[in-house]
Amino acid sequence: MPSQRSVNRILLNVALDGVLAAVATPLARYVADPGGGLLRPLWFVAGGAITLLVAGLPFRMPQQYWRFAGIEDLVGLVGSSVVSAVLFALLLVGSGFPLPTPTFPVVHALVLIVALGTPRVVYRLRMAQRAGREATDAQSVLLVGAGDGADLFMRALEYGEGRAAFRVVGLLSVREGQTGRRIHGQTILGSISQTAAVLARLRAEDRLPSALVVTQPKLSGAPLAALLAQADVEGVPVRRVPRPTALQEAAQGGTLELAPVAIEDLLNRPQVPLDRDGMARLVRGRRVLVTGAGGTIGSELARQIAALEPGSLVLLDNGEYALWLIDQELGEAHPGVPRDTVIADIRDESRIRTVFDHVRPELVFHAAALKHVPMGEANPLEDLLTNAVGTRHVAEAARAAGAAAMVFISTDKAVNPSSVMGASKRLAEMYCQALDVAARRGAGMRCVTVRFGNVLGSTGSVVPLFRRQLERGGPLTVTHPEMRRYFMTVREAVGLVLQASVVGMADATLPTGAQGGIFVLDMGEPVRIVDLARQMIRLAGLHPAEGEAGPGRIPIRFTGLRPGEKLYEELFHGSEPPVPTGHPGLLMAAPRTADPAIVGRAIDEVAAACRAGQVGAALALLGRMIPEFEHNALGAPGRVRLPGE
Predict the structure, then answer these.
(1) Residue 166 DSSP SS3
(2) What number is the average pLDDT over the span 277-302?
(3) Per residue in 412-435, pLDDT tens?
(4) Cα 167 to the center of its chain, rounded Å
(5) Over the stretch 48-59, which tens digit does the pLDDT of each residue have?
(6) Contacts (Cβ under 8 Å, ≥6 apart) of 40
(7) N or C: which end of the chain has fewer CB atoms below 10 A?
(8) Interatomic CA distance for residues 82 and 280, integer angstroms
(9) 581, 511 Cβ separation under 8 angstroms
């Protein structure tokens, strides 16, 4: 139901448009036939008002906001005027009154357009002038993008509460060749490739903006990073406009708030086309179970799987709160998907067997793991029990329950591992590879292993750490100036995991597949962690400092490698060059495999040593199974393997 205020506004519009039409109709009669008089017959006044109000209903003229009048409103006004003129002419002919002249309907329509449009334009111009006067003390901004986003942002400034907070001094276009053109009276000063020159010119004119505001939603990756670098030279921060729906609310009187540029936007890579139909065929109607469903990868898997309409979805995790959160989210986003939540620890073999026997999953996505390298070095037996022994429990339970496939989420730290965490994941990889080789040779459950690097913003990763350190005023701690990592957004990583699942189960001709090949996500180029820290400082509107902190300056402190860490992570062993799969974003590796019985016995021996608390024995067994495991227990950079070694 509309509010009383809305009803009053609509009635006011009806009255104003009726009066304007009542005046326009006899005026049109006089223009068309000056000799016929102005007010003859007098009922022209009422007839003109009535036909306009009737004609305006399909075009929703009574609901228009005069202060927000735009192209769509103008089209509606023209349509209402034309229809009104036609109705009035039919009324004249039907009542036996001759048309003043044959051209009267055309003149009538034109006069109505002028009479109805002029006050709307005048009102809008007055509101714009008032907004300009109110914005004299506002923060000056230079808009990046000269398209729909810029138009909507300036509309929000013109009519919303943001007019007192921001003042546009010009625009930068994403495309070349638009310099000199104007949008809402503001000039396009250059393209984003000319940002440095434009800012230098504005500084010379004493008009340097307080901020650059990105209005182009798709501006990300390298172009956005270059823009930030050029803006940083002049000390100008970069912000983003809020989502379009928030801009529309602001354009109708709401509050307008700028958003910081997310670090994910800078690392964003070109979108890889995914086989959504294939994913739907894989998941739709099937019973799916996700382990580690409360974690970063597991929860995103649950989201994307739920959108593919599984027959049922079971969320398994040993953390109650994290499990509750994702269950609540899926209940709101996908209420039609049958769901169950299971609190269980994958190290508890009997519990996992019981759950799988009850659920009988057809697809299992195994994301549960311990992933923090220094924590694993402090608690090595827990890493082994969870990552290696727990993975075997899940795989065996899934196979016994008749699952068609298990997808195992691995890590780049499993390549030439220097940590217990990486080695434990490599042992789990070997077991899943062995199972998949056996399945390809006969009947049985397929095991698809997917390996990738760091997920941006995941629990325990460097980005949330840097954010917390920034909130405290620094310093940002980096272990080593040359520390590099691969990064990928969680949504992109999980999308490629599902893609690998489709490809791995459907394509029997994949290179190295029969040899237990492992899917490796194309992570692009590794990123120096110190560069990431500097970028996050700049995104916060501050400046990285080499020495001590000062006003607006955040220092970066190097703390040294921690136990188990490497300077560089690798996606492939030196002896396993990447093999293209023919699918964008997916590569394959072919590390050595072994008989599943041999790997299974080794895992059993590791489990026995762990339960007996024998750290040395467990690590010795791990070293025998994984000869490339060079344990960097002290965090010594001298023992770190460099790329290509």
Answers:
(1) strand
(2) 95
(3) 898 889 999 999 999 999 999 888
(4) 28
(5) 788 878 887 887
(6) none
(7) N
(8) 50
(9) yes
Give start and end residues of each alpha helix (H) in 342-482: 349-359, 373-378, 380-383, 390-400, 420-441, 462-471
Distance between CA 99 and CA 310 in Å, rounded? 68
- Considering 22-26, 153-157, 161-165, 362-366, the range whose residues carry the highest mean pLDDT is 362-366
Residues in the chain: 645
Which residue type is seen at 348? D
Is the CB of residue 571 less than 8 Å from the CB of residue 589? Answer: yes
For strands 543-545 and 487-488, give the pairing: unpaired
d(CA 352, CA 607): 16
Find which of 204-213, 361-370, 432-441 is predicted with most confidence, using mean pLDDT: 361-370
Site of tokens 């959108």: 307
pLDDT surpasses 80 at 494 = yes
Residue 121 burial (CB count, 10 A): 12
> Could you tell me the two tokens for 395?
């795989």
C-alpha 211 chain-centroid distance? 23
CA distance 182 to 191: 13
The tokens for 541 are 């509107």
Q: Are 191 and 198 in contact (CB under 8 A)?
A: no
Exposure string of 259-289, with b = 16+ CB inside 10 Å and e = fewer, is: eebbbbbbbbbeeeebeeebbeebbeebbbb
Contact status, residue 356 vs residue 323, Cβ threshold 8 Å: no
Lowest mean per-residue pLDDT among 124-138, 266-280, 387-401: 124-138
What was the pLDDT predicted at 645? 42
Domains of the chain: 4-129 (no CATH), 135-261 (3.40.50.720), 276-284+293-636 (3.40.50.720)
For residue 305 the two structure tokens come to 């799987």
What pairing do the DSSP bridges indicate for beta strands 259-260 and 238-240? antiparallel
pLDDT, the chain, mean:
83
For residue 39, which phi and psi values (nearest 5 degrees)? -115, 35
Say how many CA atoms lie within 13 Å of 370 toward its Cβ: 26
SS3 606: helix
User: Is 151's pLDDT higher than 60?
Assistant: yes
CA distance 532 to 538: 10
Tokens of 594: 């072994």
